[in-house]
Specification:
alpha/beta, OB fold (Dihydrolipoamide Acetyltransferase, E2P), Rossmann fold, five-stranded mixed barrel, five-stranded parallel β-sheet, 10 helices, 16 strands, 24% strand
Amino acid sequence: MAKVEALPYDDRTVYSVAAFNRGVGQWLSRLPTVWVEGEVTELRRHERWATVFFTLKDPADGSCVGVAMARGRFDALRLDLSDGERVHVFGRPELYEQRGEFKLRALSIERFGVGAHLASLERLKATLAAEGLFSDARKRPLPLLPRRIGVVTGNDAAAKRDVVTTIRTRFPPAAVLVAETYVQGLRAAPAIADALRAISEAPEIDVVVLARGGGSFEDLLPFSDERLVRAIAACPVPVVSAVGHEQDTPLSDLVADARASTPTAAARLVVPDLADLTARLERSRTALSTGARRALERERRRLDVSRDHLRRAPLLLVERRRAAVEHSAGRLRALSPRATLDRGYAIVRTAGSIVRASSEVATGTQVDVELGTGGFGATVEDTR
């Protein structure tokens, strides 16, 4: 350790800035490690930096102290800290001698009270999951065109404004009922549950949006309260949970019928975009009109073909019947004795009967002989 020496002056002890800072730094290095509580602000982390910097602020009076921590140690904690979170930092005070900057060299960081809360939440989460409250099978679809939309939110103008403004911008005819209540603190969970039950029973409410802006882990704890989770599960209409930011996942997100990353995103879920809906309806109307015209055209062509068939059917029937008659006449002509006579044969009759064998006549019998054309009488002179 470098020795701190004064400059040689006649009547006083004088230190250079470097010596003064070095002395103060050596004195601070003898202080023990301590736990310090405060809110994280001005968090700065960069991949190319070996150190993570942030400021720890006392929320009571605004007192601040700079904090530095090795990036590898900070990343290993996997805290995913953000500005505004309340933490306990374990470290030792030190002085950056070259610039005379006092800071706390952090060795570990814990969210304030987060350990017990997290363990309790995990136990509650397991219990509710075992009861099936988080099951996808019990989640209900959101209505396409809700008659009336309930919004449960705090007095935070930003969250309420984001939801209501987005709903009315996307779908101006939408009717919205807002219930303001506590969304932070010990009274928040039962107050939110009561507001949810009351607004869901209002006339024509088809869906409810539960909205709150971002906040610290402690700020969002009411939305993981068992009373509120069970109230959401028992709500007679679908519930959209829009609590905190994308990385926040309170139990209300798990039990709700739909989860939105922000209040604005929740508004987009509960109402369609009127311009888009109008365009879709116009496309559907055009498609129906085109389909109807095509169907009518097909039926017209089918009727034209049927009319042609009906017009030709009698002629075709007569033609078929004539052909059948001619075929029958031809067969009759082929089978007629007259056709046989025309080929040079003769029919011999005696006493009106046809002679089929020579034994039927005797010598001297008078017979009539019919030819293909005409005939003659004859006397039998010989039989064989």
